[in-house]
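Lab notes, practical 5.
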Amino acid sequence: MIEHSNVVVANSGSVINRKTKVATNDFTLSDENSIVSLNKGTLATSRSRYHYGINKVTYHWNYIRVYLNKNLTQAVAGGAVGGVGALIANYVTGGAATFAVGAISLSVGVLVTNGIKGGVWVDYNFFTGTVTGFGWQ
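Output from the prediction step:
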């Protein structure tokens, strides 16, 4: 499993943060609520409880954490799943990708039943093919 994980990280162009052991792309994102610099050691946190959020995927040894901003969350809740497929394409491929998109979309639907407050995150274990956690960004 570790060998497979290393291949996926290498093929996705991600960088492993030596401190957290999380693979992600090294970039900076910002919105009106927060500024995040990944792999650079800085994090300015929010003024509000819910954030517009960001779109990205972080790769862990047995799961991916998929972050969806508020707009993509609204699209997924409305049935449009292309954005999720594009985000996870480097990490989950083939028939497993279709199943992953379905599981992630279902979790987003459950989370937003009382309204879309901001961006969401979903943990998808690609070895078991299950969602193991989700929440608001």
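Observations recorded by the TA: Strands lie at 15-16, 23-24, 28-30, 35-37, 42-44, 56-59, 63-68, 120-125, 130-136. Residues 94-111 form the longest helix (18 residues).
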